């Protein structure tokens, strides 16, 4: 019995240590490659200049005066960016907060080849779910490399060129009216309740830790196919270990009863 218990403890420690190493590895990779290094509680530089979809030069300080949903795309993205923008449009259409009064949305292209004209065309494709009078409060921005690098670095958004495309993460970031980073929400689709709570917290300047990081754990960019693919091997391996531990504990308890 003692040997079985010792084996169980060793197996549990193995899972915990490997899980911690996996997290460390992901964090190290995100520091230099693709992903998001969260910077909760920090304030973004508000003096950065961008062009809006009307080709006006604006600073982030001029734009951000209310809770803001910020996220990054590039307009020729073949995969994640369009579903992300559609997901944002969908959740905005379902929120009982008023766009333009209670909050705003800012989309920044991290591709320096994107232009205000392309931003205007792209915006028209995704604001159809939003009341026409409020569409101006979803702002599309383009800029030069210096300002793009400054804002992406400020929020910890890491992307990498892959030929003509980019490897990048999918998330939205909640900012306070003062530009403080208060929440990261990952994925392509968002629950109205989660976004509403993030905006309410942003209004108060309250930074909350991220609970759901499924995208970083389960998905990886495939440069060959230029798509994000679910990492089945990692998930199956983890589930196998969990199931093995459950079976082990069950057998241990049965033997104890006998």
State the gist of this model.
This protein has 258 residues and is of the alpha+beta class. 45% of the residues lie in helices and 21% in strands. It is built from eight helices and 13 strands.
Main attributes?
single chain; 258 residues; alpha+beta; Glutaredoxin; 2 domains; 7-stranded mixed beta sheet; two-stranded antiparallel sheet; 45% helix; elongated
N-to-C terminal Cα separation, in Å? Answer: 12 Å
Sheet/helix structural class: alpha+beta
Shape, per Cα inertia axes: elongated
Helical content (DSSP H or I, runs of 4+): 40-55%
CATH secondary-structure class of the largest domain: Alpha Beta
Order of helices and strands: HEEEHEHEHEHEEEEEHHEEH
Q: How many structural domains can be distinguished in the coordinates?
A: 2
For the largest sheet, list the strands in their spatial order: 3-2-6-5-4-10-11
> Can you summarize the main beta sheet?
7 strands, mixed
Query: CATH homologous superfamily name of the largest domain?
Result: Glutaredoxin
In the CATH scheme, what's the topology name of the largest domain?
Glutaredoxin
- The count of β-strands is 13
Helix tally? 8
Unreliably modeled segments: 13-30, 215-221
Query: Percent of residues in beta strands?
Result: 15-25%
Rg calculated over all Cα atoms = 22 Å
> Under the CATH scheme, which architecture of the largest domain would be assigned?
3-Layer(aba) Sandwich
Mean pLDDT over the residues: 82
């Amino acid at each position: 019995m003692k040997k079985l218990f010792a084996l169980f403890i060793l197996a549990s420690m193995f899972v915990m240590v490997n899980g911690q190493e996996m997290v460390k590895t992901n964090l190290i990779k995100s520091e230099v490659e693709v992903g998001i290094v969260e910077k909760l509680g920090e304030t973004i530089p508000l003096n950065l200049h961008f062009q809006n979809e009307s080709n006006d030069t604006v600073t982030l300080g001029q734009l951000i005066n209310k809770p803001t949903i910020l996220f990054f795309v590039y307009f020729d993205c073949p995969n994640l960016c369009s579903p992300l923008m559609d997901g944002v449009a969908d959740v905005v259409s379902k929120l009982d907060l008023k766009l333009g009064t209670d909050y705003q949305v800012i989309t920044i292209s991290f591709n320096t080849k994107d232009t205000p004209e392309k931003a205007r065309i792209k915006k028209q494709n995704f604001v159809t779910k939003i009341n026409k009078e409020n569409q101006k409060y979803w702002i599309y921005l383009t800029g030069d490399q210096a300002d793009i690098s400054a804002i992406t670095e400020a929020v910890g958004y890491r992307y990498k060129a892959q030929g003509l495309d980019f490897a990048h993460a999918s998330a939205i970031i909640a900012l306070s009216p003062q530009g403080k980073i208060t929440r990261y929400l990952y994925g392509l689709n968002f629950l109205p309740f989660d976004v509403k709570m993030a905006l309410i917290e942003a209004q108060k300047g309250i930074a909350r830790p991220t609970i759901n990081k499924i995208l970083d754990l389960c998905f990886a960019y495939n440069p060959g196919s230029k798509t994000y693919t679910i990492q089945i091997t990692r998930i199956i391996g983890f589930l196998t270990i969990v199931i093995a531990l459950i079976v082990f504990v069950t057998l241990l308890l049965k033997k104890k009863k006998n």
